Amino acid sequence: MTQPTTETRSFQAHTKKLLDLMIHSIYSQKDVFLRELISNASDAIDKVRFEALTNPDLATDGKIKLVPDAAARTLTIVDNGVGMTYDEVIEHIGTIAKSGSEAYAEKLKELGKEAATPDLIGQFGVGFYSAFIVADEVTLETCKAGEAEGVRWHSRGDGEYTIGHMPAGPHGTRVTLHLRALAAADEDATPDFDGDFTETWTLRKIVKKYSDFIAYPIVLDVEKHEVERDAEGKVVPDGKTTTTVVEETINSQKALWTRAPADVTPEEHNEFYKHLTHDWTSPQQTLHFHVEGTQEFTALLYVPEKAPQDLYAREQKRGLQLYIKRVFIGADVKELIPEYFRFMRGLVDSSDLPLNVSREVVQQDAVVARIKRTVTTKLINFFKDLLAKDRPAYEKLWTEYGQAIKEAFHYDPAVKDKIADLLLVKTTQGDGWATLAEVVDRMKEGQEALYYLTGEKFDVLREAPQLEVFARKGVEVILLGDAVDEIVVGTLEKYRDKELKSAARGELDGLPETPEDKAKQEENAGKYEALLAKLKTLLADDLADVRLSTRLTDSAACLVAEEGGMSPQMERIFAQMGQAVPEQKRVLELNPEHAVTDAMRQLAERPGTDDRLKDFGEMLVDQALIAEGSPLKHPARFARRVTETMARAAAGA
Ligand code: ADP
Known about the structure:
The protein is α+β, with helices and mostly antiparallel strands.
């Protein structure tokens, strides 16, 4: 065997910064370090037991042992899990959750140092490093099954670590914490100082609190003192006391999800969720149910407090844990839950699948597909109930995950009507959220369709000129600001028999109209005929049509899509996806009541063609683009024309 060598490596700069913050900012819940390390140990045992399904040599009764040593002031956590190779230690332990730590440091910069709470750190997954909350030195020794050598890693959390080989032993990992001096911990003067982590009663208390449900025994060596007894079992006065050491299991190991849902307390769910997800914040919602009959499974599902940063990234980990009759089969099984509910965390434990199921089987398995369907239906009903019973809680959930839920319209149009009931939207009425049912219920007398406007930003949407007539008539318009909204309205088409119509597309109809409105429209049609005809010819390269608007009251002009045409928002989505979109010519609508329109009419009625007519027409198009938040084709030209016009107006004044 080669002589073991040790190399010293540096943490990346941001890792070091993060460690400093961890050590100095978490005082109130020091004991969570144990939960994190036990969780890692339990995951490692899950993994080796899974491998044992195909490699019986690895068959393991998992066990996690806590070894406190008061004299040396150390606490060691030993597992017989899968262990790590040299490279895995560098990858998993030498770098704090890679991207996570950078995101964390960024967030801290933004929020200030006071924000460095366990909750915040937890969102970025720095589990193993929580050891440094209580330890000034950490040694990790690990051996992967089948490897010729073990690995020893050591760090003082000060910017460097050493790593080297050691002789191989049985597979598993030992993490030894050299605990900080008690006095130093006391100095933090936290009211709930967690005690001495080398005392067995402290460890028992923490394990009970955080890790009771861990499926493997968590054991401690305890001394049993036995006084000497005579043959009749009576204590011998001044007899000898014998002391034996026995291994005692300190957790109940009861898989939480197998219990009756009503018997599990919210606190137990919170701790279980934290173990399951490595999140440090409790979930905002919990759904736990058993299904019996043609299919048999249990699901335990959680809605995390916050969406992960990468919820919309393609490579985001998603899916639920899969257990078969309480044996862990795999994490992140995405076949168990639809894409649009990918923010859910949790597990499914099935009684119908064979234990030797492989990834490939899971992908095509009919049982798995049925579980997914049932989970989907249960979740939809759960959300619907929540919306009805606890509106603030539902709004919070929607704010965090609504954008993902709306993807159902793309991935699963079959459920579109059910998802439509779950939608919350902003509208031109008030700042709060509304359901589509609420918008329908308060529709105006004589209003036939539900109107919406899509765009990129709410603030811009709210002021869009296309909304003027709706404001005048008191008709509510739904404002849709997410990229996915175009797909929502395109797929949904109708809600409760009311057609969904874009406020910025086609001719406006379906709005309440008075006979006076009608008469006025006819009069204007005659009055502006010449102007419209000339502008149509002059601007034919850029526009599909020029017509009078029934939408506008204050603005001079706006652009609308032709009926069936693509909105600018949709064009942007296609462009982002890298798909070429044929240029969509739009319709310029002029406000017949606006002074500019009337002035242009007079220009148009002069014999010949005045050059200014084309200029003014193009300026109207440009300012309509600006008003809706779209880019201009020739911004400099527009700026020049505006200043020229201003100069002329000022000189004439
Ligand atoms: P997280 O567990 O949230 O991914 P950690 O910092 O706690 O982050 O752990 C990083 C990785 O190190 C784990 O995902 C796992 O691959 C590995 N690891 C940590 N502890 C152990 C252990 N006891 N046995 C095997 N692998 C471990």
